[in-house]
Design goal:
This protein is mainly beta. It contains one helix and 15 strands. It is elongated, with a radius of gyration of 25 Å.
């Protein structure tokens, strides 16, 4: 048991080290919190409700919160119960936060005939106010898991379609007025959000290990997001390492570190520390 505790402490230290490295490398540090409830309705049929909240900007600002429901069904399980195939469908509502930002424009120089030089008058810029945006997601997935001794391998393919809302946002424009010879403010409304649906295919490969005489199970996975509207181009990828802890068969806790590489996005890559809980009955 002492040896197991040493291994668990090593994993926890690894998670903390990864979080520290996020600050050192200048990437964004996030915190994800998840909670859910699962109910067995029938043999092989389960329903679930879950909610989550994500923090961004070094865990100092809300990124999004969401709530969803799912229904899963076991399609096949062999007699030894070592190979299982499942399917799942679900829907999710998400409320995303988009902080305000400033966009710097050109510097203004005006020709002065007396000094016969360009005189600096300031710099033009835009200030776009922050806003909240709604997203609605539907997904369907197929997964297969295989137990090899104490090792467990699983592969999941998930199709998802996310409908993005659109909203009118106020933008303040600061421009140089050649009549007043000052930089003044004007206001305009701009539309944010695409207002359309986006489709993606998420492929996840996970491996976990059942430690003998221990309720803590380490796991790791890699997940690739493919944009179905761009020839299955890789949109982003995730790499995770975590610990799963089951208590009294109905309580499932997990602690994980995740690195998210936003390939093809303007957003920075993210280091994430996450904590999740699920109650099953």
């Amino acid at each position: 048991m002492k040896r197991i505790h040493i291994h668990l402490m090593s994993v926890c230290l690894l998670l903390v080290s990864a979080a520290t490295a996020a600050y050192a490398e200048g990437d964004d540090m996030g915190v994800w919190l998840e909670a859910g409830v699962e109910k067995k309705l029938y043999k092989g049929l389960e329903a679930g409700i879950e909610t989550d909240m994500r923090l961004q900007d070094n865990a100092g600002e809300l990124d999004r919160w969401g709530v969803g429901a799912s229904l899963s069904y076991r399609l096949y399980r062999n007699e030894a119960k070592t190979f299982v195939v499942k399917t799942e469908i679900g829907a999710r509502f998400m409320r995303t936060n988009h902080p305000g930002y400033t966009t710097m424009k050109d510097s203004v120089f005006v020709w002065d005939s007396e000094s016969e030089t360009d005189v600096y008058k300031g710099r033009e810029y835009n200030v776009t106010e922050g806003y909240l945006l709604n997203k609605f997601r539907f997904y369907a997935s197929l997964s297969a898991s295989l137990e090899l001794g104490r090792w467990k391998l699983s592969l999941r393919e998930r199709y998802q379609m996310t409908d993005h809302d659109s909203i009118s946002v106020t933008r303040h424009k600061w421009r140089y007025d050649y009549d007043t010879q000052e930089i003044g403010e004007s206001v305009e409304d701009v539309w944010k959000g695409t207002g359309d649906a986006r489709q993606a295919l998420r492929s996840r490969l996970q491996v976990s290990y059942d430690i003998r005489s221990c309720k803590f199970d380490p796991y790791a996975y890699i997940e690739i997001y493919n944009n179905l509207e761009d020839g299955c181009a890789v949109q982003k990828s995730r790499y995770a390492l975590g610990i799963d802890y089951k208590f009294m068969k109905v309580n499932d806790f997990k602690l994980f570190y995740l690195y998210q590489d936003r390939a093809g996005d303007d957003d920075v890559s993210e280091h994430v520390i996450g904590l999740g809980y699920c109650y099953s009955f």
